[in-house]
Amino acid sequence: MKRLAVAIIVAALAAAVTAASGVAATSGKGGVGVSAALSAQAKLPPLPSYVKERQHWVIGVKCDFPPFGYIDVQGRNQGYDVSVARRFATLAFGRPNRIRLICVTTPSRIPTLQSGRVDVIISTLTWTSARAQVIDYSNPYYSATGRLLVPNNSSINSVRDIHGKNIVTTRGALYATWIRNCFKDTNLLEVDGTAAAVLAVKEGRADSFMFDDAFVLGVATQDPSLKLTNDRFLNVPWGIGIRKGDTAMNRWVNAAIKYMQKRDEFAKILRNNAPKRYWASFLPNVPRPGSHFSYPVGKDPTADCSGT
Known about the structure:
The protein has eleven helices and 14 strands.
């Protein structure tokens, strides 16, 4: 995890450089035969014609969001989402480097997909009903949850312990709405960014930072004075973003996810990208044989106060 520690320092600069140029794919001869053999072995549908003809993927990923998508000190894309993207390259073309990775941000990722600059986006894309109106979502490949980031000496062990406490989150986050709905005796502090929220906990102005597990995992990995509690809440899965109506892509991506789940590959990817001390609490977030994740269609997770 040392490379991840240094990577956070340089991620923003590296992401800016990489966003402009992307990470070039390595191509080679003989890919069509290897691709057909692998697809047959994995029983995957045909690739979309534009991907097959190009002989490599073009995929949008985060480049400043460790440990899910970031640039390491050697200038190489790393992370859970990146590993899924490279697995797609291997399944399709027999080699993990048959891919070009394009850096995207939260605001830019859907426009980048819609413009055709990338084939799909694997970029911490939480399902929302509004997004589902403009793009297609694959089956879930990660079930994101809320988590509590607390000091090591905190008495908070679960959300049941935050009543009467000072809890910080970012302005406009779904967690702020959930706290107002379900923890009316809790003092809510809303700030304009994640860095300010972490600082509020470290300075003692807040007892805990409530936010996405994908983000606070990276913070807890880097800061030895902070830890995560083990409970999870507000489960809303991530999906791979696909252009609206791209039937061939939907079929291939969903079949690949099903194949990887059956072989428990997402658990291996998580172990390769998260600190060992968090494996047990994060493994339930990934699709595994026998598990089932679904999007909260027609539901409002922030109105569910059960278990609080």
